[in-house]
Amino acid sequence: MKKIGTSYLHHREVSAQEAVFRVTGLRLRECSRKVEFIPVGENPCRMSIPLKDLEKQQSYKSSNRKRSNSDSEDENDDENKIWMNNIVDRYKGRPHIDMFIKMCLASFGSEYSVLRESQLPQKINEETTFKLDGNLGHIRKRTRTSPAVIKYPRFSQETSPEKYFQSILQLFLPYRHDEQLKPPLFNTYENFFTCGRVKFTGDNTLTSVKEFVIKNMADFVKTGQELEDAENQLHETDPKEDAWCELCPESELNRRECIDEGKVTSVIEEDLSEATIPDLNNEKSSSSVGTNLLSVSLTKNEIIPRLRSLNVKQRRILYKVRDWCIQKANGKTPKPLHVFITGGAGTGKSHLIKCIQYEATRILAQTSENPDDLTVLLTAPTGTAAFNIHGLTIHSALGIFKSLSPYYATSSEDKINSLRTKLENLQDLDY
């Protein structure tokens, strides 16, 4: 027990996916574009320098004080600095060249990546690699890959207007100091956004802050207001419980049927009667085609949940076929109805066909004197398709030979008479 308890303390259970990931060194997630997070706002979260490095800085500072025998508090910014450099600090320290003058923070984070000292090549390409001011390292333009996708905190313009305008000014207006985002003449960020004008180095013309920010936002923000309205609507109104049924009704119905079948724990064994025991000595040929036509239909309790789960398009098709059957049952002669049902896997084709068969059989059964007569025939081109809709293949239903040539594929008179008798009251053929 001690060994078992120790193993539980020092080991943990992993899934099969994680085991494969650890053994083969695969990545759990990989995408074609890099994702760059840009911290914006009044007081964004920042990573601090490790405690060991801070202790080294403190010891180095105290040793210098002892050597100089001075208690003055004139200290370097690097010695007082406790925060690690982030993308905003590197953006402020970008080179003073023409291509970086009108570049905003969003474009800087998307188009350039930070290089470590170990990643610097011996021969630096001056067209793509640049050194930052203030010993902040080097950056390189993303040329082999697509620009990165930027992520940033999003504030509401209605509930937090000051934070909203501050964030968009930080992202889409070029600046080198925080004071440039709200000059002393303006009281709020919103006032500077709507009424402010800026002049860049080398350009004597004044540019509207609002026009410049909106122009840069158009490259990164796509349908932002529509997405925000949809999110607010989702929070205000509860999500639909049957939303998945509207998208894939057949898959949802199969899932519920599997759950109901799993709840059954008792198996009822029934005695096999002599009628259910197959006759192994039956010499009758099993290749008789087109003589056994069964009208397979669902019960009322089974069909009601299926009818309720139909979406708008499926209901239109069902009502169209239902109107045609009603006209036929009333003695009218409507034109033949041709409906082509198509769609991807799991969209509800078989689900709709079963509902159509039930409604057509229920309505057209009134036109026949004998309730056992076949009025609706459900067929399919292949056996797999016929099995999914509980129907018959077209060859089996109509006695068509698929292995013989047309010259020899003629049915006998007995089979033709049998088909004629069974299909004399047929009103609807679903294929």
Question: Explain this structure to me?
Answer:
The chain is mainly alpha-helical and 431 residues long. It has 2 domains: 1-62 and 75-178, no CATH class; 288-430, no CATH class. 42% of the residues lie in helices and 7% in strands. The strands form 4 sheets. The chain has a 3-stranded antiparallel sheet with strand order 2-4-3. It has a 3-stranded parallel sheet with strand order 9-8-10. Helix 15 packs parallel to helix 16. The longest helix is centred in the first third of the chain and has 18 residues, at 51-68. The radius of gyration is 38 Å and the shape is elongated. The two termini are 67 Å apart. Belongs to the helicase family.
Q: Sheet bearing the most strands, described?
A: 3 strands, antiparallel
Read across the widest sheet, the strand sequence of neighbours is: 2-4-3
Number of helices: 19
| Class per helix and strand makeup | mainly alpha
Task: Tell me how many strands there are.
Answer: 10
Q: Please tell me how large the radius of gyration is.
A: 38 Å
Shape from CA axes?
elongated
Q: Which consecutive residue ranges, at least 5 long each, have pLDDT under 50?
A: 265-277, 280-292
Report strand %.
Answer: 5-15%
Helix content estimate: 40-55%
Q: In total, how many domains does the architecture comprise?
A: 2
Mean pLDDT across the residues is 77
H and E string: HHEHHHHHEEEEHHEEHHHHHHHEHEHHE
End-to-end separation in angstroms reads: 67 Å
Domain DNA helicase Pif1-like DEAD-box helicase: 310-406
Cofactor: Mg(2+)
Organism: Mytilus galloprovincialis (Mediterranean mussel)
InterPro entries: DNA_helicase_pif1-like_DEAD (IPR010285), P-loop_NTPase (IPR027417), PIF1_helicase (IPR051055)
